[in-house]
Amino acid sequence: MTRETALRRDPDPTRSARARLPDYSSADIDADLRWWNAANYLTVAQIYLQGNVLLRSELTPSDIKPRLLGHWGTSPGLSAIYTVLNRLIKRTESRWLFVTGPGHGGPALIANVYLEGTYSEIYPDVGRDEQGLLRLCRQFSTPGGVPSHVSVETPGSIHEGGELGYSLAHAVGAALDSPDLVVACVVGDGEAETGPLSASWNSTAFLNPARDGAVLPVLHLNDAKISGPTVMGRRADADVRADLHGKGWEPVFVEGTDPRDVFVQLTEAVGAAYEDIRRIQTEARAGTDRPAPRWPAIVMRTPKGWTGPRRVDGHLVEGTHRAHQVPLSGVRDDPARLRQLDAWLRSYRPDELFDDRGAVVDDVSVLAPDGSLRMGSTPYANGGLRREPLTLPDPAPYSLRIDTPGTVTYPTTTVLGEYLRDVYRADRTTDDGGTFRLFCPDETASNKLDAVFEATERCWQLPASSDDDHLAPSGRVMEVLSEHLCQGWLEGYLLSGRHGLFASYEAFAMISASMVVQHTKWLQHAAGLGWREPVSSLNILLTSTCWRNDHNGFSHQGPGLIDTVLSLSPGVVRVWLPPDANSLLAVSKRCLESRDQVNLIVADKQPHLQYLTDEEATTQTSAGASIWHWAGNESDGAAPDVVLACAGDVPTHETLAAASLLREHMPALRTRVVNIIDLMALLPPGEHPHGLSDAEFADVFTTTVDVVVAFHGYPRALHQLLHGRPDAGRFHVRGFSEQGTTTTPFDMVVLNRMSRYHLVLEAIRRAGADSEDAERLARLCRSQLERHHSYIRRHFDDLPEIRDWTWA
């Protein structure tokens, strides 16, 4: 393929003339190449060595790890970018965060953070001497050590990278409301093939140079994935340029195989990009009325596995997919390969990079920036250091007045929108700053949270028309039709010290479910690192739920994120099912105050009956599961004959209707109604911090009585929580069973066998009731189900006594 010459730029007379960059002398190049050699040496040593880490003698098989794990291919490019950024930071004293899309470049990032001194400050046992180097190498990808990814254990990291596609979204999230920060985001060309990364290039439409920091993407094209070529790596430069240019970026190309030449190009490109970023921001912050800027970006083409073995056993390795992981395998057993590894390591001249004690020599270590300007030490990568608690209003003034439970109908999420409006107002903010944002895939108004637009607008940097609603460059509601992008932005925002909420249609939150898994894993491991300060929780609101998406159909019905979350770390995850607006307020305040958690809140946006006063909602949110004495007919302290339990808004509605039928037609049957707000309360206390004690569980559910449960999600999810409780087989769960499409609201619960009539029939059976009253009620339930089936097909609406039912 014929490529253009390096450092290509399209002529553009509207761009300001660049100030001449300081000379990058031959001595400067030599110094940077020494740092780079040291980083490359430490990268290879981490992958291979368990002894003789400074090559005091020839390598022997006993010096080599028995299992060779790690990824070499991307590492030299990452270290080159890190090296050049160090020089820029020292010259400008600017603040940078380094986000590494190729997450398998873990050994390179560890090497650079070690060279700058941060690693040893955080992990004193990995000192700056030969013994520390030995620990550094022996810990890498070994039991009890550190993973091969740029993991939570890596100082300076907010992005694990184990699952590709989210680096640029995380980078943009960190830049939002961080006006002094520049985020260098390395995007691997394999990662560039993913859907989330492709969407992330559109973030230029949302970055506001007047109040936000900036992101400098470096698209690293080394032409290969694990076993084949990459799409972007094989595209012509003109096509890559056109792709990025169309998304609002001004790409500059750096290309080559000779390190000196590449370092000159890369240093100029980074310096010019930094000048462009500061020019764009200065003009915006001076109030200059200009169109949305075209942000600088760098496209860097260097060989995969650069400076590694050129050929192995006659096969080309450098510059191919064979360099992706461990380019020299079988080193312990093959003397020729062992000698080749020895030569490869010595090519970096470690004897000139480390002194007799094993410390990095002064003329290398001096290249690191100072203090918190080091990318491994930046507080932006340890967000708890920057986090300040949100100013949260008291929910009471926003709550609905409830005189009699189950008689008022109201859209549940509407009051949360009013509350979030004033969270925005109370946030220590001007029109163009703050620490809280709502992220939502084009659904803020649909989810009835649109009261927030009384306090702010939708963030938008592109042209707007007079017909648009609530668009402004200073807007702080982030809407884009990509669940990946919304959640990725929020994760970057949280991990760099701020607060937020991700609201999504329930079924489509599954699109980014794997991101929830990865974030939970991050928080789980961060909890064991004393140096990582707690960050604000990832709060996810699921609305437009399966039970009330009868108008959209089967595609919009799916409560599977509950199942996904329940299997994750109990120290991190929480699942909340508030039955009404006031409990949603109580739950939301609690979640916004929390740290280091993943809170999944499920609350439908449609009008629902309302039950709890604000005081009751707060009390029952703390309790997790509570007896609704007003709904049952227990008396004289006797045990109930059957317990009706519910978790979720529609399940609560149907359970109360079932309780009403039982009270009316079988008054002698003692029923108890239990509402579950905090799903994790069902877990045994040793398995979750919110788990009810054995005594509390018995007080609520008894120890012997059968429990008929109406549950928002898949029944199996609840069964797994109850495992370990005494006589868990007495819990009989009805929930979503993948039935229903475009139909009536009540038909949804009928099709999934969770209607009031199904619950009554189950309660009669489980209570062992065989009276004439029981038989009459059972006939009534079956008759009503048949009547419902005919009625909705004739009238296209639910029976009036169903549609208009209230507790009163």
What are the SSEs and their pairings?
Elements: H1 26-48, H2 75-92, E1 95-100, H3 106-115, H4 118-122, H5 130-139, H6 167-175, E2 181-188, H7 195-200, E3 214-221, H8 231-234, H9 237-246, E4 249-255, H10 259-285, E5 295-301, E6 311-312, E7 315-316, H11 335-346, H12 350-353, H13 362-365, E8 408-411, H14 412-426, E9 436-440, E10 458-459, E11 471-472, E12 477-479, H15 483-495, E13 499-505, H16 513-526, E14 538-543, H17 560-566, E15 573-576, H18 581-593, E16 598-602, E17 607-610, H19 614-623, E18 625-627, E19 642-647, H20 649-665, E20 671-676, H21 694-701, E21 707-711, H22 715-722, E22 731-734, H23 745-751, H24 756-767, H25 772-795, H26 800-803
Parallel strand pairs: 1-2, 2-3, 3-5, 4-5, 9-12, 9-13, 10-11, 13-14, 14-16, 15-16, 19-20, 19-21, 21-22
Antiparallel strand pairs: 6-7, 8-17, 18-20
Helix pairs in contact: 1-2, 1-3, 1-5, 1-10, 2-3, 2-10, 6-15, 14-18, 18-19, 20-24, 24-25
